[in-house]
Amino acid sequence: MQDFEKLGLFYLGRRYDMAVRRPLDEAVLYDSRDLVTHAVCVGMTGSGKTGLCLSLIEEAAIDGVPVIAIDPKGDLGNLLLTFPKLSAAEFRPWIDEDEARRQGQSPEAFAAAEAERWKAGLADWGEDAARIERLRAAADFTIYTPGSRAGVPVSILGSFAAPSEQARSDSELLAERAASTATSVLALAGFDPAPRSPEHTLLTSLFGAAWADGRDLDLASLIQQVQTPPFSKVGVVDLEAFFPAKDRFELAMRLNGLLAAPGFARWLEGEPLDPASLLYTAKGTPRVAVMSVAHLGDNERMFFVSLLLNQIVGWMRSQTGTTSLRAIIYMDEIAGYFPPVANPPSKPPLMTLLKQGRAFGLGVVLATQNPVDLDYKGLANIGTWFLGRLQTERDKARMLDGLEGAAAGSMDRAETDRLLSALDKRVFLLHNVHDNAPIVFQTRWTLSYLRGPLSRDQIKTLTPAASAMAKSDVGGRQSQSKVQKADTRTSKPDAIGGSSAPPIVPPGIQQYFVPGAGSGVAHYTPVVLGAARVGFGDSKLGIDETREVVYAAPFGGGVVPVDWATATRVDIATSDLEGAGRPGATYADVPSAGLQARNYAGWNKDFARWLPQSEKLELMRHRDLKLTSNPGESERDFQIRVRDVQRVARDAAVDALKKKYAAKEAQIEEQRRRAAAAVDRETAQASQQKLQTGLSVGATILGAIFGRKAIGVGSLGRATTAARGVGRSMKETDDIRRANENLEVLDERARALQDEITAETRRITEQFDAASTVEKLSLAPKRGQVSVQLLGLGWLPDGH
Questions:
Q1: Residue 733: which residues within 8 A CB-CB, separation 6 or more?
Q2: Of 269, 288, 322, at which residue does a domain stop?
Q3: pLDDT top residue among 480 and 21
Q4: From CA 527, how far away is CA 470, in angstroms rounded?
Q5: pLDDT tens digit sequence for 728-760
Q6: 613: exposed, middle or buried (C-beta count within 10 Å: 0-12, 13-18, 19+)?
Q7: pTM for the model
C-alpha cells in the first residue's frame, strides 16, 4: 500500500480490479486542484455514495480546506462522529438500538462490535486512530440548523442586506440576486413565485432599488415598501395600474403573517448567514459547516438554500483569483434544486457558482441518486464524475448522455456502459477530465462513524460546545466592529446646570453638534471636539493610509480644564457634524474655561501634539511570506489570507518537485525496463544453450553405446561439441548473474530516488504545516502626517 498522506491529494480509496472483484494495493489520490472544476457524485441507495462524499470532505478538512455542506437528509452530521479512541463507550450513544435488537445483542455488545468493526475497517485501508485525531485537529465541525435551536441557529437578517460595492457594480448579477431572493420570499409565504407575476416583479424591483443605493432591507421594511413603494412606475407602467394598492395590501398581509408566525423568530436569531464566518472560525481555523435543513418543510428548505447560495456568490465575488482550492460547497441530494426544466430560486446562483467558481478557487460538489433530476447543461461545467451503481437502465442512459457531453468525444460509451453495469457496492467509476483515462476504484473506510441521519436530539447532543463557540464568534465580531465612543461622565464639569436653549457663546468659538440616534428629544453635554486627518506611511511595507478621526475631550476641574489623555473617539465622519442642535433639546451648562476663545488655540496645539502619541496603525506581518495586513483587516482574515498564499506556494512547490524528479524517474524506469529485458533475454539464451548441450551429450553417449566402433571419429567429435556447449552454458549463467546484478543496482537507485522524493515531500509538508509566524506591528504617524481640521466647542447627545 503506497503512502497516501500527500500534499494537496485526497485519499479516496484503491484501484479496483473488475475481473477478480477486489481492490488492488494502489491508492487513488485525487488532486485537490481538480476540484475547482467541480464534481458530481451519482449512485443509488446503498451504492456507497454517502461514504465517498464524506471521505472527500474529511480529506478536504485534513488538508485545511473549509467546506459548507448543505444537508437535506441529515446524514452529514455523521462528520462529527469521530472517535479517536475507537472504544465501545464512544460508539454506545450513537448505535442503532433497533438494529442491535434485531441481531439479538444488547446495546453494549453491539457498540463493542461496532467499535471493533470500525477499527478493523480503518486498519484494512491503512488508517488508524491517529488519522482521526489529525482530522479533529485540522478543522472545526459545526452543525447549523436554520429555523431551529437544535444546532447552531442561523439568522437570515443579513441575507436582505445590500451586497458589497463590488457586487453591486455588476448589474446583471445584482438583478439575478434580487429576482432569486424575491422568488425565495414568495415561495416561503405560499405564493406561486412566477417570474413575471406582479408580486415577483414588485419584490424584485424593491430589492434591486434598495441594493443599488447600498441600502439594507429586512422583512419589516420590505412589508412597508410593498404598501408604499419608493417609486411610482414599474418599467413604463404606472404603479397603480400595474399592481393596485388593494392587491399590494394583500401581499403585505401575507408577508406580515409570515413575520408574525410563532416560529419565524427563530429565523432571526443565531449566527449571521455569512459565508466568511461559516468557512472559518474567529481564530481563522478552517470549518466544516454542516447546514442541516432536514427538519424544514419544502418551501422553507428552498428559501434557505437559495439565500445561502446567493450569499456564497456574493462572497465569492469579493475574493481574489486563485488556481488552488480555496473552499468547497457540497450539497447532498441535489434533486429538486437543480432540475433540467424548471427554474427554482436555487438554480440561478448554483449555475453561477458552477460557471465562475473556478476562477476563485471554489469547488462545487453535487450528489444525487436521481440522475434524471439534474440539469445537464449545468453539468457541462463539471470536470469530475463519480458514478456508482444506478437503479435503472434509464438512469444509466441519462448518466452516459451527460458524461458523453462533458467528455467532449473522449469517452468510449460502450466500455463505460459495460463498467457501469458491473459496479459493486462502494465501487465507483471515476472520470476526471484532468486525467488520461477513467478508473474504477473502491472507496476507503471513513474516519467518521456512519450511523445514518441524526435526530434533533442527537444534533443537540453534538451542539453545546459549538453553540458556545458560535456565541463567542458573534461576540468577538461585534466587539471588533464597535468603535469607541465618548464618555463624558469620566469627569465632573465645574458648572452643571441645564437649559432648554443653546448657551450664548462668545465670538471666535466654533460649535459642532454630534448627531444623535433615533428621533427623540436630545440632551447635550459640552466637550472640546477636535477632528484631524492622520496619515501612516511605510514604503517598505507598502502602507499609505489616511484616516479621519474625531475626538471628544471632557471638561475637567482643577488646573488643567482639558486633558486630551481622557479623550475618547467618536464614531462619526467630520462631514456629518451638524451646525445646530435638535429642536426641543436641552443643554448642560458650559464650564467657564469653555467660554474663553483664547483657550481653544492652546487646546488645538495640545491636540496636535497628542495625536501622534495616541493614534497608532495596528498591523500584522508574516515575515516569511513578506505579507502585511491591510489597515482594518482582522487577525482572522489575515490568517486566512496567509493560508491562501501558503497553499498557492505549497502547490507551486509540489509542481516544482514533480518537475524536478519526473525526468530522473523516467530515466531510471527506462533503464530498469531495459535491464529487466536483458535478464529475460539472457535467461532465454541460457535455457536454449542448456538444451543444445544436453542433446549433444546425449548423442555422444548413444553413439558410444550403439555405434559401430567403441571410439570412433564421429563420437569423438560429438564429445568435443558437447564439452564446448557446457562451457557456453556456464558463460550464459554468468551473463544472467551480471544482468540481475545490474537490475538490482537500478532497483536500489529507484528506491534511493523515492526516499529522496519522500524527504523532499516531508520538508514541504513541515514547512506548510509550521505555525504561522505572524507578528504585530504598530505604526505611528510621522512628522507632518497629522493635520488638525477643526477644533471647537462640541455638543454630545446622551448615548455618546
A1: 686
A2: 269
A3: 21
A4: 39
A5: 666 667 777 887 888 788 888 888 888 888 888
A6: exposed
A7: 0.74
DSSP per-residue letters across 533-591: EEEEEETTTTEEEEEEEEEEEEB-SSS-SB-GGG-EE----GGG-BSS--TT-EEPPPP
The secondary structure of residue 33, as a DSSP letter, is: G
How far lies 293's CA from each of 370, 605, 709, 773, in Å? 19, 61, 104, 39
Count of structural domains within the chain? 3
Neighbours of 614 (CB within 10 A): 14
Q: Same structural domain for residues 791 and 717?
A: no
How far apart, in Å, do the first and last CA atoms of the chain sit?
A: 67
Task: Confirm if 291 and 144 have CB atoms less than 8 A apart.
Answer: yes
Question: 561-588, pLDDT tens digit by residue?
Answer: 999 999 999 989 999 998 878 877 888 9
Residues in the chain: 800
C-alpha cell at 63: 488538508
pLDDT band at 493 (very low <50, low <70, confident <90, very high): very low
Lookup: cell for 101? 435488537
Which of 338, 339, 345 lies closest to 186, judged by CA? Answer: 345
Cell of 647: 497553499
Residue 284 lies in a domain: no
Same domain for 687 and 786, yes or no, is no
Please state the rounded mean pLDDT for residues 390-398: 84
Q: What is the pLDDT of residue 469?
A: 45
d(CA 72, CA 50): 13
Exposed/middle/buried for residue 734 (C-beta within 10 Å: 0-12, 13-18, 19+): exposed
The answer to whether 37 touches 364, Cβ cutoff 8 Å, is no
Distance (Å, rounded) from C-alpha 332 to C-alpha 76? 8
Say if residues 628 and 536 touch (Cβ distance below 8 Å).
no
Q: Are 337 and 347 in contact (CB under 8 A)?
A: yes
Which carries the bigger pLDDT value, residue 688 or residue 102?
102
Residue 321 falls inside a structural domain: no
Q: Give CA–CA dist 793/688, Å, rounded.
A: 113
Task: With beta carbons less than 8 A apart as the criterion, state whether 406 and 433 touch.
Answer: yes
Going by the DSSP 8-state scheme, the letter that residue 517 receives in this structure is S
Of the three residues 239, 269, 299, the one that is the final residue of a domain is 269
Residue 783, pLDDT score: 78
Mean pLDDT of the chain: 84
pLDDT digits (tens, 9 = 90+) for 286-326: 999 999 999 998 888 998 999 899 889 888 988 999 999 99
Strands 427-432 and 384-387 turn out to be antiparallel
Lookup: cell for 256? 406580515
Q: Which pLDDT band, with edges at 50, 70 and 90, does 258 fall under?
A: confident
d(CA 228, CA 249): 10
Name the CA dihedral angle for 160, 165, 166, 168, rounded to a multiple of 10 degrees. 60
Given a contact cutoff of 8 angstroms between Cβ atoms, the answer to whether 227 and 249 are in contact is: yes
Q: Distance between CA atoms of 800 and 790, rounded to whole angstroms?
A: 20
In whole angstroms, give the CA distance from residue 480 to residue 636.
11
Q: Assess whether 489 and 584 both reside in one domain.
A: yes
498 with 589: CB under 8 angstroms?
Answer: yes
- Confidence band of 502 (pLDDT split at 50, 70, 90): low
At 496, the pLDDT band (50, 70, 90 cuts) reads very low
Helix (H, G, I), strand (E, B) or coil at 44: coil
Residue 349's closest CA among 333, 332, 323, 331?
Answer: 331
Residue 203: other Cβ atoms inside 10 A: 27
Do 54 and 82 touch, CB atoms closer than 8 A?
Answer: no
CA gap 364, 329 in Å, rounded: 5
Residue range of the domain that includes 682 = 654-769
DSSP H helices in 189-332 = 198-212, 219-227, 239-242, 245-260, 275-279, 298-317
Same domain, 787 and 735: no
What angle in degrees, to the nearest 10, is found between the helix axes of 171-188 and 298-317?
160
> How far are the Cα atoms of 693, 720, 724, 736 from residue 729, in angstroms, in the given order?
8, 14, 9, 11
Q: pLDDT: is 254 or 401 the higher one? A: 254
Contact 187, 209 (CB under 8 A): no
